[in-house]
Design goal:
elongated; mainly alpha; BCP1_family; single chain
Length: 76
């Protein structure tokens, strides 16, 4: 009995969303934004952050992150 009541509530909620507009649909012209970025090669002081980044990228891989981070800094 409760499942049927929940279904009715869900169906009513879905029908209300059908008439809603997406935000920004009435925008006729998009604003352009320009950005300037500066980049610097990794240095010895970036080693900890680089190791953390590698840990996130290679979650389950058995690699030596410290050695890989050192290699990246050396070739930069």
């Amino acid at each position: 009995m409760e499942d049927l009541e929940n279904d009715k509530v869900c169906n009513n909620d879905e029908s209300e969303d059908d008439g809603m507009d997406m935000p920004g649909e009435d925008v006729k012209e998009m604003e352009k934004m320009n950005f300037d970025f500066e980049a610097f090669p990794p240095s010895e002081e970036d080693i900890e952050g680089l190791e953390n980044l590698l840990a996130q990228i290679f979650l389950r891989a058995e690699i030596n992150r410290k050695e890989l981070a050192d290699s990246i800094i050396k070739i930069s």
